[in-house]
Design brief:
By secondary structure, the chain is an alpha/beta fold. It has a 7-stranded parallel β-sheet, sandwiched between helices. α4 runs parallel beside α5 and α6 runs antiparallel to α7.
Length: 274
C-alpha cells in the first residue's frame, strides 16, 4: 500500500484529496495546523498529525512518526498547505510578505528538503507541489500570493532538473478557481494586514475586492469542485512517469496559453481587466 503525506487537510483541497485517496485504498497521513482539525481527521479514520509548515519541529516530528509507521518509507508528498494574502503591492508590509512566504514557500521547501533523503534512500518517490494559475500569470491585488507561487515555480523547476535520474518525480499543480475556504481565509488576512483607509486603492477595495472576498457564491468562471484536484493527485500517484506540470480548470488552460503566445503588453491589457 502506497503512503502519502498531505499538508493542509483541515478543509478544501487537502481534505477532499485525503478522503479521495483513502477511498482508493492509499495510506494517507493527513496533517493540519490546528489540533481540533487533527482530532476531526482522526475521527474520520486517518493517521493524522499536527503539522504547521512554519514550525520546523512539527515538520520533522511528523515525518519521524510517519516513518515509524511505515518502516522508514514514504512514497508521495503533496505540499498543499497555503493561503492567500490579498492587497495591492504598495499596501503589503514587508513583514506581511514574509508571513506569506513562510507558509507558501519556506514551509513547502523545508518539508520537500526533509523528504528527499528518504526518497533517495528508498530509490523512488513523488513530490507534488501545489502552485496556481497565479504562478503563471499575475492579477491585481494578489501580489504577495502571486510572488509566493512564482517562487514555488522557480524552486520546483530547478529541483526537477537536479533530481533527474533519481527516480524521484516532481510535479506542479496549476490550479485555477476551486471551491474551498480560500476566500474566507483570504478575507481574514486582508482585514488583519491591509490598512484600507489610508490606501490609494480604497475605492477598489470597497467596491470590488472586499465584495468578492465576502461573497459566499462560487461565481468565478470555470470554478470546479475540490475533487478535480484530488483526481489529478490520484493520476500522478498511479502514473509510471508523472508529467512535470498539470493544469486544473479551464481558466488555467486559457491563461497559460495566453502567457505563451501573447506579448507582455497584450497580456497586461487582458489581465488588468480581471
Amino acid at each position: 500500500m502506497q503512503s502519502i503525506l498531505i499538508t493542509g487537510c483541515s478543509t478544501g483541497i487537502g481534505h477532499e484529496t485525503a478522503l479521495y485517496l483513502k477511498k482508493y485504498g492509499y495510506k494517507v497521513f493527513a496533517t493540519a495546523r490546528n489540533e481540533e482539525d487533527v482530532v476531526k481527521l482522526k475521527e474520520l479514520g486517518f493517521d493524522a498529525f499536527f503539522l504547521d509548515v512554519t514550525k520546523h519541529e512539527t515538520i520533522h516530528d511528523t515525518i519521524d512518526k510517519i516513518l515509524k509507521k511505515t518502516g522508514g518509507t514514504l512514497d508521495v508528498v503533496f505540499n498543499n498547505a497555503g493561503y492567500g494574502q490579498p492587497g495591492a503591492v504598495e499596501d503589503i508590509k514587508t513583514s506581511v510578505l514574509k508571513e506569506q512566504f513562510e507558509t507558501n514557500v519556506f514551509g513547502l521547501h523545508e518539508l520537500t528538503q526533509a523528504v528527499i533523503p528518504i526518497m533517495r534512500r528508498q530509490g523512488y518517490g513523488k513530490i507534488i507541489q501545489h502552485s496556481s494559475v497565479l504562478g503563471l500569470i499575475a492579477l491585481k491585488y494578489r501580489g504577495a500570493y502571486n510572488a509566493s507561487k512564482y517562487a514555488i515555480e522557480g524552486l520546483t523547476d530547478t529541483l526537477r532538473l537536479e533530481l533527474e535520474g533519481s527516480n524521484i518525480s516532481v510535479s506542479l499543480l496549476n490550479t485555477g478557481p476551486v471551491k474551498s475556504d480560500f476566500r474566507k481565509n483570504a478575507l481574514k488576512m486582508f482585514k488583519k494586514n491591509i490598512n484600507t483607509k489610508n490606501s490609494h486603492f480604497i475605492q477598489e477595495y470597497e467596491m470590488q475586492l472586499n465584495d468578492r472576498l465576502e461573497s459566499n457564491k462560487e461565481d468565478t468562471p470555470f470554478t470546479l469542485d475540490a475533487s478535480a484536484v484530488a483526481e489529478v493527485v490520484l493520476e500522478i500517484i498511479q502514473a509510471h512517469k508523472p508529467r512535470p506540470r498539470y493544469y486544473i480548470t479551464k481558466a488555467t488552460y486559457i491563461l497559460g496559453f495566453a502567457k505563451r503566445v501573447l506579448s507582455t503588453s497584450w497580456l497586461d491589457k487582458i489581465l488588468v481587466k480581471m
